[in-house]
Amino acid sequence: MTTATKIGETTFTLPSDREIEITRVFDAPRELVFDALTNPEHVPQWFGLRDWALPVCEIDLRPGGAWRYVMHCADGRKMGMSGVYREIERPERLVYTESFDDYPGETINTGILTEKDGLTTFTATILYESKEHRDAVIGSGMQRGAAVTYDRLAEYLGALQKA
């Protein structure tokens, strides 16, 4: 398994023909990163591209609980996504489904958070229904969006620690 080696670097690997693995190291304790990923007061502050807002952020953080995000772009575009939490082991593991309103298919996302020396490594493994689905997502430019989103999360975590 390949992992990010530097703070601020988002890495993408393909561990199988149906998966994308995203790894990022954050300069923040694991509990704070977990909260930023799962608290509806935090998520709208960092989620998505810089020119998008997240006015709908509903999170029922429990196994079987649903989540829903709707992002709005300044030019009027909207993008909705939702899923259901399958497993929650605070603060080290999240497993949930994810589907987009305007894109077919559902993924199973597994997030693992490990902490060492005050740094938290977040590894998200996304399992797609097929190789074709995974490859279409890669072709959509998903890496850029994910990298910008994790950059924003890193900035937000830094601001939280200074407050």
User: How large is the radius of gyration?
Assistant: 15 Å
Biggest beta-sheet profile: 8 strands, antiparallel
Just give the CATH class of the domain at 10-50 and 90-162.
Alpha Beta
Shape: globular
Could you tell me how far the N terminus lies from the C terminus, measured between alpha carbons in angstroms?
Answer: 35 Å
What is the CATH H-level superfamily of the domain at 10-50 and 90-162?
START domain
What is the succession of H and E elements? EEHEEEEEEHH
User: Which CATH architecture of the domain at 10-50 and 90-162 would you pick?
Assistant: 2-Layer Sandwich
Spatial sequence of strands, sheet with the most strands: 1-2-8-7-6-5-4-3
Q: Write the CATH fold name of the domain at 10-50 and 90-162.
A: Alpha-D-Glucose-1,6-Bisphosphate, Chain A, domain 4
What structural class do you assign from the helix and strand content?
Answer: alpha+beta
Percentage of β-strand residues: 35-45%
Report the strand count.
Answer: 8
Give me the number of helical elements. Answer: 3
Low-confidence stretches: 1-5
Mean pLDDT: 94
Short description:
The chain has helices spanning 30-38, 131-139, 142-162, and strands at 10-13, 19-26, 52-59, 66-73, 78-89, 93-100, 103-116, 119-127. It is α+β, with helices and mostly antiparallel strands and 163 residues long. It has a domain at 10-50 and 90-162: Alpha-D-Glucose-1,6-Bisphosphate, Chain A, domain 4 (2-Layer Sandwich), CATH 3.30.530.20.
